Amino acid sequence: MEKAFVVISYSLEDQVRYASYKLSGEVEHWRSAKLRELEPDAETLTLETSHQMFNDKDFPKNLINRKGKEFLQLQ
User: Fold this and answer.
1) Is the pLDDT of residue 1 over 70?
2) Nearest to 2 by CA among 42, 50, 45, 39
3) Number of domains in the chain
4) Mean of the pLDDT values across residues 49-55?
5) Cβ neighbours of 28 (radius 10 Å)
6) For residue 54, what are the domain limits?
7) Which of 60, 56, 49 is nearest to 19 (CA)?
8) Which domain of life is it from (predicted)?
9) Residue 23 and residue 31 in contact, taking contact as beta carbons nearer than 8 Å
10) Where in the chain does DSSP place strands (E)?
11) pLDDT digits (tens, 9 = 90+) for 59-68
12) pLDDT band with cut points at 50, 70 and 90 for residue 45
């Protein structure tokens, strides 16, 4: 999706709107819950905040560190 944003030159606001529209199922429930948790009065998240929340949830720091060490040890 991000490649399309670069090619089409969507504004950040439009990127967030489109990405939110494409969410469905568990992801949409998770996003809605996180939005209420972080900003109870807000209706949308910034793209940066959304990315950080996703990365924190799906890519734990210990996994990133471990994979980074594995990568550095490749020959």
Assistant:
1) no
2) 50
3) 1
4) 75
5) 13
6) 2-72
7) 49
8) Eukaryota
9) yes
10) none
11) 778 888 888 8
12) low
